[in-house]
Amino acid sequence: MRWDQQSKSCRLYLGAIYALSLPATAYCLGRGTSLTYSWTLLTLASIFVATINVRLPKISSVISMGDVFVILSLLYFGAMPALLMYWIDITVAHCSDIVKRHGARLLTKIPLDRFFFNLGCCSLSVASMDVALRAAVRFTRLEPLPLTLKLGIIAVVWFVVNTTTVSLAISFRMNRGFWLVWREGLNLYLLNFAGSAAVAGLIQSFYNRVVPSVFFLSIPIAVVLLQLYRSHISKYDQAQTHISDLNRLYLQTVETLAAAVDAKDRYTHGHIRRVQSFATELAKHVGITDESELMAIQTGALLHDIGKIAIPEYILNKPTVLTDSEYTKMRFHPVVGSNMLKNIEFPFAVVPMVRSHHERWDGNGYPDGLRADQIPAGARVLAIVDCYDALTTDRPYRSPMQRNELIEFFQSESGKAYDPLMVETLIANLDHFEDVAKTAVGDSEDIWGLAENISESGNGLRPLQKVHPINTYGRALTGNTELQAHLFSAFEFARANIQCLTPKDVFAFMGRKLEELVAFDAAVFYLADLELGVVIAEHVLGKEPSGLEGLTLPLEKKLTGWVASNNQSLCNLPPFPDFLGCTEHPTFEISAIAPMNRNGIVWGAISLYRTVKVKFTEEEFRRVEVIASQTALALSNCNAQEGFGSLVDASTGLPNGYHLHLMFDQLVVDAQKFDYPFALIMFQLDDRKIRRRWGFTSGEEAIRAIANLLRREFRDSDLLVRYAADEFFAIVPRVDRNRAEGLQARIQSEIMKISVTARSGAPINVPLEGGVAMFPEDGLDVETLVAVANWQLRKDATLRKSGPAALPSDR
């Protein structure tokens, strides 16, 4: 790492060491003696040994047996010769290490800042040892000091000065805690300095009491011991490399398993990676340093939502608040995940973390209701960082939470949902976590090979294939007579060709109808301004309208802006995203929001709010959608249609033509959203012949007989209406033309077999014709489809009157 790449604190520390080393160097050089022949021989021996250095595992530091000769030089010759020898040994050891690792051609690239730091540490160490020896003489008044005391003082002072200065440098450079770095090298440093002092003492004893040649005989022994140690370190490094490779392979396997969740829910792509990074950093900041615990947290972060594989996709991707039964199923995913993983023999505790990451500090979490310290530490870490990522990332229906709101939220949940220590640590290090979020996801490709940013043409939601709009909207339209009258008046108003109406007039009328159809505390009609890219609250009504008039929200953001832009409704969501940034936050708990769009034109949205947590029912929400679609129609000023104020045919009990018109827009939206066709099948009874010959009552009997047979033939998910006096229409979703025509022919054949008994007892045959029109192939609106079906019906009737020869051949 170059000087300019190091942190400011690291550069300041290195500068301080350089400055302190200057007076230390001056002190040592001032204690000089002559450099004798013996010192030269000792220096040559130290140079030889210094080339055989050992790099410590885990931390970037080197030890050498050359320290033995530095101690001998200090004991025999004093501070200045010892410092010079130390400098020579450091230079040789540094160059030797560079050559071994990178080759001789890289000697020119020796990091000078680190080299001069090492020289400075030499000066500080030798000066400190010499001062300590002289202080011991003055304190004990022993001259000379006993050898054992001398060596003890040298070992302790050298250990303290060297390990402190080096560990601080590594701590600043690697951005790791000082005590963590100091502890990692503690055992080897103790062995090095204590062993060097002991060997130096033995050599001096032999040198003084036996013969000087014994000194040189001891050098091979030291070299052999050092080589044995190097062999041990080499094997240790090989084992660590193997373990690292296995851990990397292990994590890659875990990541592949976690990608199974990505395959079901693309939202988790990026989220899982960020949670893993946040969890690792938070764990380190709260004092978790054990490698096994950190690996467990990293693995648990990847797998914490693996149980969602067993959750149905329509629940995972539901754009509205879950029902009670759906939420109950969702709460099973921690248990499912832990059961999936329990047969895997993890080398650390992953399964408890996966099971308990939705537990709360106050004991109100799930699945086991654990509280406080009963919850595994890793699970407590995951719980808070999972929430932190959800609140700080963009969602389709809301913007990220601002920092002050984030702090306020976590402070309010401290001691409730989350461990107070975790909350305190997270808030204290928000700057660091924001930096981590920027680099947490290095690859923008997901397992589908698609970019993480969804294109504008898609909304990221999957079709709910099990939803039958005819059933859901049918229940909303078939309430009591008064409710139907309000829906009918909204239908009539939307089709009235009143040129002088303004949007506020439309909103005022539709708002009154909405008050009769749905209970709410506030309702807002938002009108879109496409040039500014916003929706503006143009009309507000209800008991709690304060602060809503004129509220402006960005398109594609918040809740209402997202609904208007994406033509997707949202129901029973907390509405607070709409009011982030407001000076006064309305106290609403639940919302229902429907888009006011028609024929690709974005008009805006209707948002209903309640101050209590009472969910909107399915029928209420569908009525809101109907009013929204009719409001859009009124805004686009469509042509009027005539009719009367009921949605059910009194004679047959079937929905009537107005029911079809009210529901048709919703059917078109659903068909376009999920890309399926539907058929409009028309049946027409020639009841005039029956009525002219047998009377009105017999004609009505024939109509009811046909209605009863048609009810049995069509599914609940099909829409059957009596469109006019002698016409029946059926809308059949998800069928092609061949199936629709086959269905029409079969039903037509069955009806022509039945007969109605007249008052005289005579059987009356029921003449019936049929025709089929397909959406979107034959038309995009109900009027066009009716015209095409009627044309097909006339064509079919003409062919039948012409005789069998005129009918199409089956061959």
Q: What does this protein look like?
A:
- With 811 residues, this protein is α+β, with helices and mostly antiparallel strands.
- The protein has four domains: 3-225, Arp2/3 complex 21 kDa subunit ARPC3 (Orthogonal Bundle), CATH 1.10.1760.20; 265-439, Hypothetical protein af1432; 469-635, Beta-Lactamase, CATH 3.30.450.40; 676-806, Alpha-Beta Plaits (2-Layer Sandwich), CATH 3.30.70.
- The protein is 57% helix and 10% strand.
- It has 29 helices and 14 strands.
- The protein has a six-stranded antiparallel β-sheet with strand order 5-4-3-8-7-6, sandwiched between helices. The chain has a four-stranded antiparallel β-sheet with strand order 10-11-9-14, sandwiched between helices.
- α4 runs antiparallel to α5 and α6 runs antiparallel to α8.
- The two termini are 84 Å apart.
- Residues 442-466, 638-644 and 804-811 have low confidence and may be disordered.
Oligomer: single chain
Calculate the mean pLDDT score and round it.
Answer: 77
What is the tally of beta strands? Answer: 14
**Broad CATH class of the largest domain:** Mainly Alpha
CATH architecture of the largest domain: Orthogonal Bundle
Strand order of the largest sheet: 5-4-3-8-7-6
Helix tally? Answer: 29
Global morphology: elongated
Q: Report the uncertain regions.
A: 442-466, 638-644, 804-811
> What does the largest sheet look like?
6 strands, antiparallel
Helix content: 55-70%
Integer tally of domains: 4
What name does CATH use for the topology of the largest domain?
A: Arp2/3 complex 21 kDa subunit ARPC3
Q: Provide the structure class.
A: alpha+beta
The end-to-end span amounts to 84 Å
* Estimated share of beta-strand residues: 5-15%
Question: Compute the gyration radius: what is it?
Answer: 42 Å
